[in-house]
Design a protein that fits this description.
With 176 residues, this protein is an alpha/beta fold. The protein has one domain: 3-Layer(aba) Sandwich (Glutaredoxin). Helix content is 34%, strand content 21%. It contains five helices and seven strands, in the order αβββαβαβαββα. The strands form two sheets. It has a five-stranded mixed beta sheet with strand order 5-4-3-6-7, covered by helices on one side. The protein is globular. The chain starts with 5 loop residues before the first helix and ends in a 10-residue tail after the last helix.
């Protein structure tokens, strides 16, 4: 049987210590955001391809809709989102549709046929969708004025239900 020399033993212990320090410094909170989590500033891509930020705290609540032009339920709820935006404007709710379409031209073709009276941005590489654990479309994320996730709703969502989930004092709904 081969014994480990004291020199190799020290090297092995040193390597293990370095590995332990590296693992301890890893960000273990990088998983998807969940209800009750504070949302950091989000960097998005505008329709023109520029980088911009969405700050999820302030004087308004934030309703994010993750969608794609090829998604039938997303297309079906589009007129309802336009209606909800009109109703929500006075309630200080900012509705932002985040398209995961890879090509900007696909998004623009859709919007030419189906105008939006709310903000539409792009997440062509799916980084923001991944941050919220989006697995299907549409997925709605409701964030209160303090920047806290109040609800995550998978599937279509109408304005009345979104308003109810965003009401101050209302307990957050379970993730659906």
């Amino acid at each position: 049987m081969n014994a480990i020399s004291p020199r190799r033993s020290h090297a092995l212990v040193g390597a293990i210590a370095v590995l332990a320090l590296l693992l301890a410094s890893c960000d273990t909170s990088a998983g998807p955001l969940r209800q009750g989590d504070h949302v950091p500033t989000l960097t998005i891509t505008t329709r023109t391809g520029a980088s911009a930020e969405i700050v999820p705290a302030g004087d308004h609540a934030l309703w994010l809709v993750f969608w794609a032009s090829w998604c039938y339920p997303c297309r079906a709820e589009w007129p309802g989102l336009n209606k909800a935006q009109q109703e929500q404007a006075a309630m200080q709710v900012r509705l932002v549709a985040i398209s995961v379409d890879e090509q900007a031209s696909t998004l623009e073709q859709f919007l030419a046929a189906h105008p939006a009276n709310f903000e539409v941005v792009r997440d062509p590489e799916g980084q923001i969708a991944k941050r919220f654990g989006v697995m299907g479309f549409p997925t709605h994320v409701l964030i209160d004025e303090a920047g806290v996730v109040r609800a995550i709703v998978r599937g279509p969502l109408d304005g009345a239900r979104a308003r109810a989930l965003l009401q101050p004092g209302t307990a957050t709904a379970p993730e659906e």
